[in-house]
Amino acid sequence: MTVTLIVLDSVGVGALPDAANFGDTGAHTLDHTLLGTGTTLPNFAALGLGQVAGVASLRTSVSPRASYGRLAEVSPGKDTTTGHWEFMGVTLTHAFQTFSKFPDEVMAAFDALTGRGHLGNVPASGTTILDALGETHLQTGEPIVYTSADSVFQIAAHVEKVPLGTLYRWCEGARKLLQGEHAVARVIARPFTGTPGGFRRLGEARRDYSLTPPHETVLDVLKAAGREVVGIGKIPDIYNHQGFTREVHTDSNMDGVDKTLAEMSRRPDGLVFCNLVEFDSLYGHRRDPEGYAGALQETDARLPELLNAVGPEDWLLFVSDHGNDPTHRGTDHTREYGLLLAYSPGVAAEDLGTRSSFADVGATVAELLGVAWAGKGSSFAQELRGA
């Protein structure tokens, strides 16, 4: 059996009850994007996305093709690592540390590592900081360091000034530096190309260097049980490459869909786990509702291919890891429910309600694949099967 799990990165479906604590009262990535742009997603609506509690932007279906629900996040955060770790059974009691500026001792150690100075060390959008500092970087060769409201240390460098291998070594060194009191969830390599006024990030060459999950995940138990675990896109990076039997890089949402379809066609006995990141990275942070809506439409158009690739006993699940409402203030993620859709050919749709933790996803994946999981999360596999 193959279970395919696709994360629609940042496609939140409404503010969580504690959203006010994060400054996100009223956020609703899906509704605000679709209603504000007049966009429809006919294939996702037919699947049952309009049935999800709190979703007002899509029509409901008389006979939805998939089971549907929404996911409440237990862990105190709204970032990629927090959400994905919780999917696979790791719930945090404390949020990852964030910085508005990295301490002088951290930057001094980083400069010693690279043998150069640095530019930036500020919170910034990844595209606007290239406009501001890219030309200076080309002149000096000093890497651009920036962060965000997420727990990240991002290093941008032009590939003609800093070879990719060098940038990756700097990130590996920074990962070792950023531990303990200075630990961040991810160090991210952000290579770019182009000329002033036309810089372009190279998504396919991005690398994320994450902390290692603090204990065993569903991915680990699947792998130990002999199941295949295929990570597509940035998924393996998020778990520091633990628990995977195969890793597949991608350079866009549609490349991610293509490579997911290729893996599904192999019918692996296990999990195919993909993240489609561009909703978040290209449009949410840039507060671009039109671009976000276009990316959703593009994915909606590929949905029939994905459904047709699901074998008779297989499952296809869609989830989201947080919000990034492109109509909200600032450039940060938003604290929202995650969406949940689960499809298998010929299986009747069930209302899965509001799940009490993202960890229910991993627990369900384990049960569907016949692997024991004693960690966090309550499986809804029996509900999917109508039992």
Provide a descriptive summary of the structure in words:
It is built from 13 helices and 14 strands. Helices cover 33% and strands 19% of the residues. It folds into two domains: 2-90 and 213-384, Alkaline Phosphatase, subunit A, CATH 3.40.720; 104-210, 2-Layer Sandwich (Alpha-Beta Plaits). The chain is of the alpha/beta class. It has helices spanning 29-37, 42-47, 80-87, 104-114, 128-140, 164-177, 218-224, 235-238, 253-265, 278-284, 289-308, 359-368, 381-384; strands at residues 2-8, 67-71, 119-123, 144-147, 152-158, 186-193, 200-201, 207-210, 228-232, 246-248, 270-276, 315-319, 338-343, 351-355. The strands form two sheets. The protein has an eight-stranded mixed beta sheet with strand order 10-9-11-1-12-13-2-14, with helices on both faces.
At a glance:
This protein is of the alpha/beta class. The chain has helices at 29-37, 42-47, 80-87, 104-114, 128-140, 164-177, 218-224, 235-238, 253-265, 278-284, 289-308, 359-368, 381-384; strands spanning 2-8, 67-71, 119-123, 144-147, 152-158, 186-193, 200-201, 207-210, 228-232, 246-248, 270-276, 315-319, 338-343, 351-355.
Structural features:
eight-stranded mixed beta sheet, 13 helices, 387 residues, Alkaline Phosphatase, subunit A, alpha/beta, 2 domains, Alpha-Beta Plaits
What's the arrangement of secondary structure elements?
Elements: E1 2-8, H1 29-37, H2 42-47, E2 67-71, H3 80-87, H4 104-114, E3 119-123, H5 128-140, E4 144-147, E5 152-158, H6 164-177, E6 186-193, E7 200-201, E8 207-210, H7 218-224, E9 228-232, H8 235-238, E10 246-248, H9 253-265, E11 270-276, H10 278-284, H11 289-308, E12 315-319, E13 338-343, E14 351-355, H12 359-368, H13 381-384
Parallel strand pairs: 1-11, 1-12, 2-14, 3-4, 5-6, 9-10, 9-11
Antiparallel strand pairs: 2-13, 4-5, 6-7, 6-8, 12-13
